[in-house]
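Thread: "does anyone have the structure for this chain?"

Original post by V.I.:
We have the sequence but no experimental structure in hand. Need at least a predicted one for the grant figures.
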Amino acid sequence: MTVVELDDGRTVVPDNRWDLVGDAPTTAPLVSVVIPHYNQPHQLALVLEALTAQTHPRDRLEVVVADDGSTCPPDVSVWMSRLDITVVTQEDKGFRAAAARNLGAAASSGSVLCFLDADTVPTPDYIRRAVRLPATAPDALVVGRRKHADLSRVAPGSVVEWLSEQRRLQPSHDCEPGWLVDAYDRTSDLLTPGWDGYKYLISAVMSCSRELFDDVGGFDPSFIRYGGEDWELANRAFMMGAVFAHEPDALAWHDGPDWAERPVPERISEKNAEALALAPLITDPAARTAGLRYSIPDIVVLVSTDGHTAASLMHTIAGALRGVDAAVWLVGETADALLLRLAVHDSRIRTGTPDTSTLSRCRFVVEVTGPVVFADDSLARLTAEVAPGECGRVTVDFDGSPSASVTVASSRARHRVRRWAAHTDVGDDELLDRLFGVRRVRHSEVEIVVGVHEPALSW
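Reply from O.Q.:
Generated one for you, tokens below.
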């Protein structure tokens, strides 16, 4: 696996290797700071004042305050002479931070988006540190470092001095949520994120390129209560080829304690509501511990019906669905007729092609041709081969049999190749190999065999 240079000089890194990104671009990118806001005049004043002291060039910085229907619209007139600042507003229909962030991003023009909450105050070097990776490697989704303090008595005019004093007084990990500190340490700042790295991407201190944000579709506006929208975005972005990174030098201070330390009266019910909203959208098995099936599966299986009889197709489908969170799409001119002959009422068996929502959230895509028969754990063993840090695609070798083929690819590999293939001088297959690697395995190693076209179904 190797770094791939785009035609504009930026970098596409292999797998999640953000550590291979070179120096920041010599010309500072235009950065759009998007701040969702709701009835927080004092906290917003602290954030805006802190943004006037950034080391990132001020003429390469714009600020969009996305107001979520506050009782009194935010007054930013004090900062208009020092910041390029815009206010956009949406109607108050309850907590809609996801939609507000999308609204702010749509009203901005920077090549890098830097999301800061209205109660999260950036240190002077925050922007410069947070945008280095997205400006150079446009697949990067970066989370900064978040500390907590009571800023209720800090005046806007003294917040920069307060930030400087905290830098001198605070030990390295003081005032930080322990669960985040442990996760970043365990994953080497998300260099090795695994499948659950999305849980450590916090939208209050999140940055990415506009290209990535637009390609993944922004935040999901269906989230209309506190929590979950950042995990959903991060997970979807990862499935679509994003590179996770934690930038510990991009430090911001959150006014008040972490949610885990707040006096929330219905803590269990609040977390349950978040989990129920995420489970249909996040295919990570850790998000689906109840064992239920959802419309969006973990594994998309595309089965060509060419050359199949109804009996052989039944065997292929049954093996592909056995023991895994999968759904099968039958592809080919005979798909509808064969499904009708099968006479099954199983919502996991469909015809046509998966929709965009499914392909942007599943972890794996399997393509099957011919009357193959899967053992109980065949797909589980194949998908383990295309995990983060492994490879992007596995092809099963049937010893030269032309009647069967099985390939398993990670969604993140497929999407990253799709996004950048037109910007390089290499083909899709070579690009996938360079960015993720490809492997071949013998069919006997994963217990997949070529079946017969008309197997006996009697008992």
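V.I.: this helps a lot. The mean pLDDT is 92.
O.Q.: and The two ends are 50 Å apart (CA to CA).
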